[in-house]
Design brief:
76 residues, mainly alpha, two-stranded antiparallel ribbon, 3 helices, 50% helix, 11% strand
């Protein structure tokens, strides 16, 4: 994503940003460690937290980058 695209995303996704910041802080304060493998395929490469519902900030699925991108493509 280029700089202009990122700025646009920031401007239109305030709730997502708040939830992601809250979740990172919550994990740090409570010693929650990111799993080492993807919950979909079992890969251990680049594990990311995915929020299926931003109204439930602690409901997270850990996916590798490939599965995370695929998840969002299915939702679109």
């Amino acid at each position: 994503m280029n700089k202009a695209g990122y700025k646009k995303w920031i401007a239109t996704n305030k709730k997502k940003q708040r939830v992601e910041r809250f979740f990172r802080k919550y994990c740090k304060q409570n010693g929650i460690v990111r799993p080492t493998d993807c919950s979909q395929c079992g890969s251990t490469l680049k594990i990311e937290a995915h929020h299926p519902d931003y109204d439930k900030p602690l409901d997270v699925v850990y996916l590798c980058h490939v599965c995370h991108v695929a998840w969002h493509r299915r939702e679109a």
